[in-house]
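=== RUN LOG ===
request id: a7f3
mode: sequence -> structure
chains: 1
length: 346
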Amino acid sequence: MPKILMSGNDAIAEGAIQAGCSFYAGYPITPQNELTAYMANNMPKRGGIFIQAEAEVAAINMVFGAAAAGVRAMTSSSSPGISLKQEGISYIAGAELPAVIVNIMRGGPGLGNIAPSQSDYFQATRSGGHGDYHCLVLAPASVQEGYDLTYLAFSLADKYRVPAIILGDGLLGQMMEPVKLTSQRPGLPAKPWALTGCAGRKANVAKSFYLKEGDLEKLNLKLQKKYKEIIAQEQRWEELFLDDARLALVAYGSMARIAKSAVKTLRAKGKRVGLIRPVSLWPFPKKAFAKPRNKYLVIEMSYGQMLEDVQLVLCGKAQVEFLGRSGGGIPSEEEIISKVNKIYNG
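=== RESULT ===
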């Protein structure tokens, strides 16, 4: 198929529709409004349902209901709006329902600004709601990946019956690049657990409320078994120039694009530098760090959130340096090169 010029927000929305999403509920917030507008324009035309809810809390609970009925359901927002959805996301995880949540991150804390940021990493990977649960988290670094990973997120959410988060940022959401679309929708899996009416079978129940002693612990043990399987099977990352690298940069999403450019510039000058780009943020790609290296430089549009995962993986076995900005600040290629030169020479 020919490529189509699309924004990141539009590509994520189209990826959802192509993946078979038939229910979307959301509420406007910059810098993801184009995604909501795309769904408003396209879902009714293509057999789906679009609802602009009265608030973010209403939207996530509508997604709970649609997911419980067995349809592929999605919501999207940006940082403050995602914070408001956390209770509902916890309920979805506790009820073992598949759903996709898109966060196009903006500067914070508080209402912040509409500039790109990566300061919601903790919220996504540590599961910002209450209870012992995890969301599967995927971080696209291009508009094409925004489309592809959203398509994948629906499949993984159904496979494991978990919420899946697409963690982008304002830069990815607004930029435009050519995108190759999938030619046809996938076949959707059977969902014998769905609430579709109980004629001819035992009634299904979707809940996260357990009062009988021991029942909630049994659910949690079941969830932990599932999470261990996800950790074993779903780690994703990209590697660049690691075979001879003395120093490996670690960056994800939009920040990885700038880091990749810096790596190519540095290697042209004889510096043996490589790149690890986590694609799955949960599960964090620990396997990418299996080969011993002496030095790492973590680069983020935050003040050291993914840094903690890198430090936990390495457990003091390598030197870990950090470069980060937040509140809409974006580390530049020149800043990365300057930092690398200091580490490399040191």
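=== NOTES ===
The chain has a mean pLDDT of 96.
The first strand starts at residue 3 and ends at 7.
=== END ===
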